[in-house]
Design a protein that fits this description.
By secondary structure, the protein is an all-alpha fold. The protein is built from 67 helices and four strands. The chain starts with 17 loop residues before the first helix and ends with a helix.
Length: 1483
């Protein structure tokens, strides 16, 4: 609510060359009134904004000159200089646009001279610019000349031949340079951007310059340049090494050039159709076209090239009003058929995005053509046509796509489908709402489950087209149905938008039909009554989302509904005040009032109290048992749609009453809301106080109209001051020693908001309150004590609050206290309690930034205090203080590392070193390292810091890299026990190397142990567990203490090195005066991370090393130094080669899920620039998938384990997003096949990978239901996104089904059955599957039925669940017939209970599915066969008798199962078959 300062516009000033400057000086007159004087004054300024003012005076001055009818040499020279100035300015410089705009108004008398000047200057640029990296500036100038600049366009037209030749030359040279610099991402990005701009300018040239009507001369230079450019664009279109945007723009250019150059124009549609259909007749096209587009005239054109040609066809051809005739209509249909074919082939996310946009563009084009099309085209594009059917299929399979932009395009396509159908039916004059296509479409959408997000938008478009009355006629309870799903956060925005569309449409319909105001009652009954029911009776999440999303939209549509809602809620508020777990009517009332006030429907809170609710009820809400009622009531007091609304006395009293009882809330969400609402209140106080100050200064005698401001402004300001002081008193009283974490968090957060909203005033700015006035020595000490707590959030809040106070507040700390404070920070930095070093870091940073370092610091530092630089005094002082503190910490750290090299146990017990490193990192992060003034002082410090970090890492790495770091140090003091433990550790030590899988290790028996030999073998391990502490006391050292010391030290070193790479400027050469890190130092840091990520076994160590390594790789990928830029690629190839070789001597960890190897490769790939081609990811994925696939080589076990573990990490990485999706199908194949491996490690890694893929495909499970429909998708959508899995799953399922029961009766357990059924069980049926799916589900059905005979109960249950989505609604009765036929008769003596039970489970779920009313739409429910009701009743009772109570409540979970279930199941089979045969015959 605060006022943001407007960002000042930065304008780079214009300059001229020395020769032009001298010319202006020689032409300027003494009076300074001619154009030369104006320009001279302008170029001598250094402020670009001031120069704009002078540029705008050029044309008025020339208009005066024009009256004399003269164009003297002075003006000619000035116009020439202006042309030079224009071409010298950067494309984005506002001066360039202002100059072009001014020259557009140039008097006609000067146009010829000005055109000549611009033509001459542009000609000079075209002829003299030969540097490849300067081509971009010339191309930008050509672009700016054609963009709303008449003089520039005329100049380009005059030089058309030269410009085309220049563009051709520049594109050739830039593309060749780009090819040579493959791998240099930064330079390649610049060059590709130059290529893209060059193509766009070429397209703009054809579209805006009128000189292309004379292209009939095939031998002219212009024609030759056009052919050359067309050849270049064709080459770009098929070049997979270029960015997709370049290829896309090239597709536009190819179609535009063909359209411009090909004659006669009437044959262009047929030519382009043959290109798209890959059926070009080489004998029927011109030779020049064949030479330029030879790669496009063949049958093996790439998918991307074909896609972008479709885009160019839709964008560049003239589709308006059917100007291309029947051939154009045929081309339109051919284009969409090509797009449909591509949609089933393209799986790369970027191409999928392009395809969706092009399909949406096609529907827009179709709408344009349908306006004046032939009846034949209308027949092809109405709702019942094949084209529309396939468009709907695309919408249904992509409206849940993970890419938000792609989902948006499906909505556009659906909306355009309705418009296309409407245009196709215009001649028939039929009612759109009564049309059969619209009716069936509406029914199909309403039958869909409400968890489908695409359903909401499509229904909203239908409401816009046919009205809400037709929807309510089919589903009267649809408002309640939509409100019911608003407990799911992911669906809330879609549901609220649909409801808004519906109730707005309903309101307009009712108002247009009604003659009086009685329509509002029906509207309230339809839309408000369900809302009130939810507010009073719904669950917590449902209420919250309805209040946040639906209620504001409803009140904005009809504000008068508020009184209706309050009236109903008031009557029930006394009876239903609510409880701890229920809001009741009181909570609903407060929520409505809060929302109404926040959106401006209540002018002030006192209005709400006086007219709608009493003050006592407000206080009742502030201390209600339910936390959300308290929040809503507080929101009613704090929120307002006007930031300057004055806070009343009653509001302030209620706020104080609230704070007294609500600081100790245990819910983090409630605490955040309380602090946020109070901050809004403080902003209101601050901004309204400024209004009061102005009123007080004006001394107005007029009484304000608002009741809240009837008292004198000074009285209100004093009330504000007293209120804020009272609030601060209450908050500081809550910070007593021993106060709880929630209390401290709330109090410090609110105090921080106060300090932020009421800053220290600068200049004449008045503020009603300053926090510093209410802070004394005791309260300052209270804040300092908050830094010593165990919760870091409290420390952060206390530190931030201290930093917001004026620096004068530390002056009352004497030198002795400062010395003690600094000494305490140093002691805490080496404490054995990990949270103490965090306290030390904040204390040191506070002392640094407050300039409160003790004068006696020289006793800790051997060097003299450095002096401040010449720059900003405050920044220099902070930098100097930071340098001193880091030197002090580094000196202590070096000493402690030296001691730790002698005894690691002593270090763990007395001086764990990670605290020092943490404090150094904390101090560096607070400093702006890119603008250091004491660079020469920092360089030796950084060098020493790196050396010390490496030493520290070398001390602790033997523990971290051990195969069992958790128990490396023996805890027994008994010598014999210690020796036995060490022997065991030595025996198992090699078991995590690569020979673990090829050579078994046998633990040898030892009857006696030689302590001396053992100690010699393990020199770094001290068996003593008693160590002298800091004060000389003996203390026990456990393995846990040593491990914590080691992994935390590794963690802090990794974070420090990552921060140094990320924050410190780099030196391009060692002798460079700028920068702190050299190239060699960066390489050393990279080698350090590589070693520890690939060799560490402790997860805490390599996870934190990964964090630092990610920072390093991000810097390397953006580094201009080519050797550093290539490092990630080199590291990646090296580790992949080591994984592939499977050398038994390799130190790569094959256990612990490959330890840090997946993290290492994940960091290298995730930091690759996303806008590039992602070559590293593509190559790595292919390599890993090939390693993870099935092989007969026993030596490939270790590489396969590594590959599976790395794939799992990559599929889990959210930063890779949709880039990784094309490899999901191959990953799923590897996981399913790996599950059949005889090696346990492969099966284990395959299981983990499969679990990750399930999450990646179906989404994160957010509920307890394993098969929640929020984590499922329709079969058509699944196989549309992953078509490769269709034949694979079908074949695997057939193999599994064949092994369920052998002919000999032996039971087989196929390991892949569970995985296959788990995938298939997450699919669900859709009403569209039968008509809109190209992949039939029928082949899966018999195999799933056979899997239902598995001897494993869980597999039978999953087979029954998996069968349901594969059986269409109208096929369920026939499927039940088939299943019943497989049941044994009464007379059968040979039968299997698993077989019977599996069939019964499938029958039960199919019967339940058919009985569910789809989406409460009885009119759209498929009609069951005539024998179904009787059979359903009988079979239901029989199934409940024999089936176990594990599939749902419909199986009567309280009923006791028979003692001999196999007998009852056998009898049940006969009863079901007999009843079915009798009923079906009688019917």
């Amino acid at each position: 609510m605060g006022v943001k300062k407007k960002k000042e516009t930065q304008v780079t000033s214009l300059t001229v060359c020395h020769q032009d400057l001298e010319t202006l000086r020689s032409l300027a007159d003494v009076e300074g009134k001619n154009l030369a004087s104006l320009l001279l004054h302008c170029v001598q300024l250094t402020d670009g904004v001031s120069q704009i003012h002078y540029v705008k005076q050029i044309v008025p001055l020339l208009e005066k000159t024009n009256r004399n009818g003269k164009c003297d040499p002075t003006i000619r020279s000035c116009l020439d200089i202006l042309a030079g100035i224009y071409l010298s300015l950067n494309l984005k410089n506002p001066l360039k646009k202002v100059l072009a705009s001014s020259l557009n108004d140039l008097p006609e008398f000067f146009l010829t001279e000005a055109t000549q000047s611009f033509t001459s200057r542009l000609q000079e640029e075209l002829n003299t610019t030969t540097d490849l990296y300067s081509y971009r500036k010339v191309i930008d100038n050509i672009s700016s000349c054609m963009e709303n600049f008449d003089l520039g366009r005329s100049s380009v037209n005059n030089l058309l031949e030269n410009v085309l030749h220049y563009l051709q030359k520049s594109l050739i040279e830039i593309s060749e340079e780009n090819r040579k610099l493959a791998g240099n991402h930064i330079v390649q990005t610049q060059l590709m951007n130059d290529l893209l701009v060059g193509i766009r300018v070429s397209v703009m040239l054809i579209q805006k310059v009128q000189g292309f009507q004379r292209l009939h001369l095939k031998s002219s230079p212009t024609w030759q340049s056009m052919c050359g450019l067309l050849s270049i664009f064709t080459k770009f279109l098929s070049d997979d090494d270029l960015l997709q945007t370049i290829k896309s723009t090239s597709g536009l250019a190819v179609i535009l050039f063909i359209k411009t150059m090909f004659h006669p124009p009437g044959k262009i549609p047929d030519l382009i159709s043959s290109l798209l259909l890959r059926s070009v007749d080489h004998t029927s096209i011109p030779e020049w076209l064949l030479n330029c587009c030879r790669s496009l005239c063949c049958t093996d054109i790439s998918q991307s090239a074909l896609l972008f040609l479709c885009q160019g066809t839709l964008t560049m051809l003239d589709w308006q009003d059917g100007r291309m005739g029947p051939s154009g209509e045929a081309l339109l249909l051919d284009t969409v058929r090509v797009l449909f074919t591509l949609s089933s082939q393209i799986k790369e996310s970027t191409l999928e995005m392009f395809l969706s946009r092009i399909l949406a563009s096609w529907t827009n084009t179709a709408i344009q053509v349908l306006v004046s099309s032939s009846p034949n085209l209308k027949d092809h594009l109405n709702g019942n046509s094949d084209v529309v059917r396939r468009l709907l299929e695309y919408v249904y399979t992509h409206w849940e796509h993970p890419l938000d932009a792609l989902r948006h395009q499906t909505k556009i396509i659906f909306r355009n489908i309705l418009q296309m159908h409407q245009l196709a039916l215009e001649e028939s004059g039929s009612d759109l709402a009564a049309d059969s296509f619209i009716f069936q479409l509406t029914e199909s959408l309403l039958r869909l489950e409400w968890h489908s997000k695409g359903k909401y938008t499509c229904l909203g478009y239908l409401v816009d087209y046919i009205g809400i009355e037709h929807i309510l006629a089919l589903a009267k309870t649809i408002p309640s149905q939509i409100l019911e799903v608003m407990g799911d956060q992911s669906l809330v925005p879609y549901a609220s938008d649909l409801l808004e569309t519906m109730f707005k449409n309903h309101k307009s319909c009712l108002k247009s039909q009604a003659v009086d105001s009685t329509w509002i009652d029906k509207w309230h009954e339809t839309w408000v009554s369900p809302l009130l029911f939810i507010l009073c009776e719904g669950n917590l999440d449902q209420k919250s989302y309805v209040i946040d999303y639906y209620l504001p939209k409803l009140l904005n549509c009809n504000p008068e509904s508020l009184s209706y809602m309050v009236k109903i809620l008031q009557t029930s508020a006394d009876a239903k005040t609510g409880s701890y777990d229920s809001r009741g009517a009181l909570g609903a009332l407060m929520a409505c009032l809060r929302t109404a006030r926040a959106h401006g429907h209540l002018q002030s809170a006192t209005d709400a109290w006086r007219d709608l609710v009493s003050s006592a009820r407000i206080k009742q809400g502030l201390i209600h048992q339910h936390c959300q009622v308290r929040i809503d009531t507080l929101g009613l007091l704090c929120e307002s749609n006007r930031s300057t609304e004055i806070v009343s006395t009653e509001e302030m009293e209620c706020i104080q009453f609230f704070i007294t009882y609500n600081l100790n809330s245990q819910s983090p969400g409630v605490r955040q809301q309380i602090c946020s609402l109070l901050k809004k209140l403080f902003c209101r106080i601050q901004e309204s106080s400024q209004v009061l100050y102005k009123l007080e200064q004006s001394k107005s005698k007029h009484e304000p109209e608002n009741e809240l401001t009837r008292q004198h402004p000074s009285v209100s300001l004093q009330q504000y001051k007293n209120f804020m002081s009272s609030i601060c008193n209450s908050l500081f009283e809550a910070l007593f020693p021993g106060s709880s974490y929630p209390t401290r968090f709330s109090a410090l957060t609110i105090l921080g908001s106060i300090a932020e909203v009421f800053p220290v005033p600068e200049g004449r700015v008045q503020t009603v309150y300053q926090l510093s006035h209410d802070i004394d020595v005791g309260r300052f000490q209270t804040l300092m004590e908050c830094l010593t707590g165990t919760f870091e959030e409290v420390k952060i809040l206390a530190f931030d609050l201290l930093m917001k106070l004026p620096k004068t507040f530390v002056q009352f700390q004497g030198s002795e206290k400062l010395q003690g404070l600094f000494q305490a920070a140093l002691e805490l930095s080496t404490s054995t309690k990990p949270y103490d070093c965090v306290t030390a870091s904040y204390l040191l940073n506070f002392l640094i930034w407050q300039n409160a370092l003790p004068s006696s610091l020289s006793t800790y530092l051997k060097t003299q205090r450095v002096a401040c630089g010449d720059g900003d005094k405050s920044a220099a002082l902070v930098e100097s203080n930071t340098l001193i503190v880091i030197k002090c910490l580094l000196e202590n750290l070096e000493e402690e590392v030296s001691r730790a090299e002698n005894s690691l146990l002593q270090a763990a017990a007395s001086f764990p070193m990670y605290g020092r490193v943490h404090c150094i990192t904390g101090a560096l992060r607070k400093l702006a390292l890119n603008s250091l003034q004491l660079v020469s002082e920092w360089r030796p410090v950084v060098e020493k810091l790196l050396v010390t970090s490496y030493r520290l890492s070398a001390v602790v790495s033997p523990v971290i890299q051990s195969s069992s770091p958790e128990g490396l140090i023996p805890m027994d003091t008994d010598a014999e026990s210690a020796n036995r433990l060490q022997t065991i550790l030595n025996e198992i030590q090699p078991r995590d190397t690569n020979d673990y899988f090829s050579q078994a290790k046998i633990l040898k028996e030892c009857d006696s142990f030689d302590l001396e030999d053992l100690s010699a073998n393990v020199p770094n391990i001290d068996t003593s567990a008693e160590i002298k502490g800091k004060e000389g006391k003996t203390c026990d050292v456990t393995a846990q203490m040593v491990l914590v010391c080691c992994w935390r030290s590794m963690k802090e070193v990794a974070l420090l090195l990552g921060s140094l790479c990320q924050l410190l400027p780099m030196r391009s050469v060692p002798e460079s005066p700028d920068g702190l890190l050299t190239v060699e130092q960066v390489k050393e840091i990279g080698d350090y991370f590589k070693q520890h990520l690939l060799q560490s076994r402790h997860r805490g160590a390599f996870e934190l090393a990964y964090t630092g390594f990610v920072k390093l790789t991000e810097i390397l990928n953006r580094c201009p130094n080519l050797s550093l830029q290539k490092l990630p690629e080199e590291w990646l190839w090296n580790v992949l080669e080591e994984i592939r070789c499977s050398d038994p001597s390799s130190k790569l960890c094959a256990t612990r899920r490959s330890a840090g190897i997946p993290f290492y490769i994940q960091a290298l790939l995730a930091s690759e620039p996303k806008k590039g081609k992602m070559d590293l990811l593509k190559i790595t994925m292919k390599e890993l998938i090939s390693l993870a696939g099935p092989t007969d080589d026993s030596q490939s076990t270790v590489p396969k384990v590594h590959a599976l573990n790395i794939l799992r990490a990559l599929f889990r990485d959210t930063r890779l997003g949709e880039i990784i999706i094309p490899y999901v199908a191959d990953g799923a194949k590897a996981a399913i096949l790996g599950f059949t491996s005889p090696v346990w490690a492969v099966r284990n890694s395959s299981t983990l990978l499969f679990s990750t893929l399930i999450t990646r495909i179906f989404g994160v499970k957010r509920g307890k239901d394993e098969l929640s429909k929020k984590n499922r998708m329709t079969g058509s959508e699944f196989f549309s996104r992953f078509p490769e899995l269709y034949p694979f799953l079908l074949k695997q399922l057939e193999t599994v089904a064949n092994t369920v029961d052998s002919d000999t009766g032996e039971q087989n357990h196929h390991p892949s059955m569970f995985l296959l059924l788990l995938v298939l069980g997450r699919l669900y049926p859709s009403p569209m599957d039968g008509t809109c799916s190209a992949l039939s589900m029928a082949p899966f059905i018999p195999f799933i039925m056979r899997c239902g005979c598995s001897p494993v109960y869980r597999s039978r249950e999953m087979a029954a669940r998996a069968l349901v989505p594969f059986v269409m609604m109208d096929e369920i009765p026939d499927t039940i017939r088939t299943l019943l036929a497989k049941l044994p008769d009464f007379t059968d003596q040979c039968f299997r209970q698993n077989h019977i039970h599996g069939i019964l489970l499938q029958l039960c779920l199919l019967k339940t599915t058919l009985e569910i009313v789809p989406a409460a739409l009885s009119a759209a429910r498929p009609s069951p066969p005539p024998w179904w009701p009787a059979f359903s009743t009988l079979s239901g009772s029989l199934l409940r008798t024999a089936l176990p109570p594990t599939l749902g409540t419909d199986l009567n979970s309280q009923r006791r199962r028979p003692k001999e279930p196999w007998k009852s199941q056998h009898l049940l089979c006969g009863a079901l078959k007999n009843s079915f045969s009798l009923i079906s015959v009688s019917r």
